[in-house]
Amino acid sequence: MSMMERAESFTKLIQATCPDYVRLSIHPSSGQVKLSIPLIPQSTGAFPRSPWHCSIAVGLDGSYRTVHSKEVRESHNLIHRHGRPYFFREKSELFDWADEEGKVEFEHLYGGGCVVAPVMADAENRMLTGAGLGKLKKLAGLQSPVITRGFANRADGEIVA
Q1: What share of the chain is helix, strand, coil (3-state, %, to 5)?
Q2: Burial letters for 108-142: b for 16+ Cβ neighbours within 10 Å, e otherwise?
Q3: Spatial contact of 48 and 37, defined as CB atoms under 8 Å apart
Q4: Does the predicted TM-score (pTM) go above 0.85?
Q5: Can you tell me the distance from the alpha carbon of 24 to that of 21, in angstroms, rounded to the nearest whole number?
Q6: Is the separation of the CB atoms in 78 and 27 below 8 Å?
Q7: How many CB atoms lie under 10 A from the CB of residue 27?
Q8: Spatial CB neighbours of 6, under 8 Å, sequence gap ≥ 6
Q9: Could you tell me which of 81, 24, 83, 88 has the C-alpha nearest to residue 54?
Q10: pLDDT per residue over 42-58, tens digit each?
C-alpha cells in the first residue's frame, strides 16, 4: 500500500469515527478534510517546511524562517547550543562582540526580540559598556524587546531602548 493510499484510508477512518471533530495538520492541504496550521508562520505568507525537513533561520529583525541550510550558509552563522547545531542567525556586526567586550549569548525570542547575557565563564562582575550598549540599542531598533540579564551594571530583565 502506498503512502497516499494509507493517508486516504486514514482520512476516511477519521471521518467515519469522529465526524464532529476538526482535523488539524502542519502540512499544506486543500482544507476540505483538515485545517492546515503552520508551526512557524513565514513573513512571505508561504506555508513553511516542517521542522524535521529544514533548519530555522533567525533574521536580523528577529523573524523566523524555515529554510534548507544551503540557502543560508553564506548569509547566516550556524549557532550551537549545548555543543550541537541549533539554528542559523543572520550575520551582523551587532552579534559580533570584540574580545574587550567579552562574550555574550543571544537568546532569540519567538515573535521578536532577544535576551542578551554574558557567557557564564565570563559573567562575574561583567559590565555592559558603551560599545556593547550601542550595539544593543541598534539591535533594539530592529527587533524589540532586547532584554539584558546578568550584567553587573544593569537590572536583570532591563529592556534596552
Answers
A1: 25, 25, 50
A2: beeeebbbbbbeeeebeebebeeebbebbeebbee
A3: no
A4: no
A5: 10
A6: no
A7: 11
A8: none
A9: 88
A10: 888 888 888 788 999 99
* DSSP-derived secondary structure for 26-59: SS---SSS-EE--SS--TT-PPPPPGGGSEEEE-
- Counting every residue written for the chain, the total comes to 161
- Please give the grid coordinates belonging to residue 73: 550558509
Which spans in the chain are helix H? 3-17, 130-142
Instruction: Tell me the three cell numbers of residue 115.
Output: 535576551
| Element spanning 81, H or E | strand 76-81
Angstrom distance (rounded) from CA 132 to CA 97:
7
User: Which amino acid appears at position 128 of this protein?
Assistant: L
Whole-angstrom distance, CA of residue 55 vs CA of residue 1: 31
Q: All 3 cell numbers of residue 130?
A: 558603551
- Cβ-contact 94, 59 below 8 angstroms: no
d(CA 90, CA 86): 13
The model's pLDDT over 9-53, given as tens digits with 9 standing for 90+, comes to 988 898 899 989 888 888 888 878 888 888 888 888 888 888 788
